[in-house]
Amino acid sequence: MSRLTHLNERGEANMVDVTDKSVSERSARAESAVRMSAEAFELLVAGSNKKGDALAVARIAGIQAAKKTADLIPLCHPLALTKVEVEFELLPEDNTVQVRSYCRLAGRTGVEMEALTAAAVAALTIYDMCKAVDPAMVIGPTRLLEKSGGKRGHWRPEEVTHG
């Protein structure tokens, strides 16, 4: 009988064996946020950032990060993602960029870590692109919004009302 844990019978960290799990459609959504000064937000919205289009670069960075999650997070399975999206919502009332990611595949394990990695790396990229104007930006919270597929089916925290 397979245990769904990262510890083997000797208590050592190992990648979970998903060989006996069935393939199913799996997806996950995650979010992060970057709150910045009004000046940095205005430059970002206007596309006047000296480093270029921060949102375009952050979108690509998030997509690349999702595809490389197994290289970044120990014990994650390398996955053949079939869809990765990274989107942004600009919230001028508090100078925040809301980052949302979506990952999907047909596989034996979920894509929560890939969605979280995509959102986090996109947020970090926005920080990197805007830090010359506002090094005091705040990133987060980063959290899982929803996941579906596998044995547990659909999961969504009760407090999430968007995404």
TrEMBL record:
Substrate binds at L75, C76, H77, M113, E114. GO terms for molecular function: cyclic pyranopterin monophosphate synthase activity. It catalyses: (8S)-3',8-cyclo-7,8-dihydroguanosine 5'-triphosphate = cyclic pyranopterin phosphate + diphosphate. InterPro entries: MoaC (IPR023045), MoaC_bact/euk (IPR047594), MoaC_sf (IPR036522), MoCo_biosynth_MoaA/MoaC (IPR050105), Mopterin_CF_biosynth-C_dom (IPR002820). CDD domains: MoaC_PE (cd01420). Pathway: Cofactor biosynthesis; molybdopterin biosynthesis. Residues 15-150 form the Molybdopterin cofactor biosynthesis C (MoaC) domain. Residues 1-23 are annotated as: Disordered. Its EC number is 4.6.1.17. One of its GO terms (biological process) is Mo-molybdopterin cofactor biosynthetic process. Pfam families: MoaC (PF01967). Keywords: Lyase, Molybdenum cofactor biosynthesis. It is an enzyme of class 4 (lyase). The active site is at D128. Belongs to the MoaC family. Catalyzes the conversion of (8S)-3',8-cyclo-7,8-dihydroguanosine 5'-triphosphate to cyclic pyranopterin monophosphate (cPMP). Homohexamer; trimer of dimers. This is Cyclic pyranopterin monophosphate synthase. It comes from Microbulbifer donghaiensis.
